[in-house]
Q: What sequence folds into this?
């Protein structure tokens, strides 16, 4: 499965949205080369730095020669890699562009390859593009002087919304505007994050998820017991019967409380919910899993006891669609991240890289032995099997 990020990686300058200034600057840079030898694209993650390097290569019919830290440190290797580059053009008459991607990651280790990069800038015959998130550290002083600095900005949410809409249209998947808007806002200018969220929503929108239906039946039943009955010996165990995390149940309660409770009950129920949410926050921030007990009590007995008398009659409960979708997409993102962190540590690569190469990594770590090595949790393994 290709990710949306891969599929919609830009092919021409027009595909790089909201970065007109950077596009103009890089075009100008390539014209004046070699009077400036290197351009340093810097800015927040997912704003098009790497894309722009590849687009430039496409547009100028050049090939990209990517150098990483170990290439830079290994003199022999560097000579070898650069050898063809010392001739005026490559074999097929293509130009060549040297890319040093994520230089701040590269030089994180003590032996950074930074001096080598600086000397490469002096003698290169081909334009060098360097990308970085943060270039204001002192160790980059010289690099900043020797290269043309070009900032890329976090994208405006409206621009991201346009990108998402265009893709949803191309994929012929209907996603309501409200969801697209909230993804755009939540992404805080990071197009990659937005595309990953969009992908999660696409996956939810596919009607094939039968398991989901059973889960919903279960949760409807449990809501009925919480809302209709008074607290009894079963109340505290009700959620054990639903295959759904408490955080998600909280969203179901939040959505349905007003259909069942009124007046004072309503106020009480939401009060309890807000307390549960406080615990939820502590659980996530401080990893105090013991608080799950309280979260469960509040969400079950707490919500149930907001009323004084049992309720009768039928209530049509609703699925908390909008927030649930966003929540689920976040959950996926988080699982992916926690797996990527383990993988990255094991393979000594950056978490960012692991996240980006996740589609491939996902294949690699399907084997149970490897999952064991990485010490994956059950839910992470389940995530991988989807
Ligand atoms: N300005 C943009 N216009 C359109 N799509 C974009 C833009 N920026 C990023 N994207 C999309 O997001 C994906 C990731 O972008 P890219 O790899 O260029 O980010 P980056 O700035 O290099 O991030 P990082 O700092 O994490 O390396 C791309 O595949 C592309 O689909
Ligand atoms: Mg990049």
A:
């Amino acid at each position: 499965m290709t990710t949306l990020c891969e599929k919609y990686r830009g092919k021409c300058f027009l595909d790089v949205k909201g970065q007109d200034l950077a596009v103009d600057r890089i075009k100008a840079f390539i014209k004046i080369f070699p009077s400036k030898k290197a351009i340093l694209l810097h800015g927040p993650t997912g704003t098009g730095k790497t894309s722009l390097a590849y687009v430039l290569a496409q547009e100028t019919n050049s090939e990209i020669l990517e150098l990483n830290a170990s290439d830079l440190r290994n003199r022999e290797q560097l000579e070898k890699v650069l050898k063809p580059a010392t001739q005026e053009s490559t074999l097929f008459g293509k130009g060549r562009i040297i890319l040093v991607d994520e230089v701040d990651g590269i030089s994180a280790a003590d032996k950074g390859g930074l001096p080598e990069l600086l000397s490469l800038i002096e003698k290169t015959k081909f334009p060098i593009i360097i990308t970085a998130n943060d270039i204001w550290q002192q160790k980059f002083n010289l690099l900043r002087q020797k290269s043309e600095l070009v900032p890329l900005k976090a994208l405006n949410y409206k621009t991201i919304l346009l990108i998402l809409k265009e893709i949803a249209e191309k994929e012929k998947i209907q996603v309501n505007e409200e969801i697209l808007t909230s993804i755009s806002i939540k992404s805080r200018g990071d197009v990659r994050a937005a595309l990953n969220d969009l992908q999660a929503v696409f996956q939810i929108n596919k009607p094939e998820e039968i398991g989901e239906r059973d889960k919903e039946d279960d949760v409807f039943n449990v809501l009925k017991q919480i809302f209709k009955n008074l607290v009894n010996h079963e109340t505290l165990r009700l959620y054990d019967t639903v295959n759904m995390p408490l955080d998600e149940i909280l969203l179901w309660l939040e959505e349905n409380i007003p259909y069942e409770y009124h007046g004072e009950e309503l106020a009480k129920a939401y009060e309890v919910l807000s307390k549960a949410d406080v615990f939820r926050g502590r659980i996530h921030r401080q990893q105090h899993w013991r608080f799950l007990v309280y979260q469960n009590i509040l969400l079950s007995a707490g919500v149930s006891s907001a009323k004084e008398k049992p309720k009768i009659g039928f209530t049509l409960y609703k699925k908390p669609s909008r927030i649930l979708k966003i929540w689920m997409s976040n959950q996926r993102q988080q699982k992916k991240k926690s797996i990527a962190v383990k993988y990255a540590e094991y393979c000594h690569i950056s978490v960012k890289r692991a996240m980006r190469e996740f589609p491939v990594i996902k294949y690699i770590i399907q084997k149970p032995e490897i999952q064991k090595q990485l010490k994956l949790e059950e839910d992470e393994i389940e995530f991988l099997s989807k």
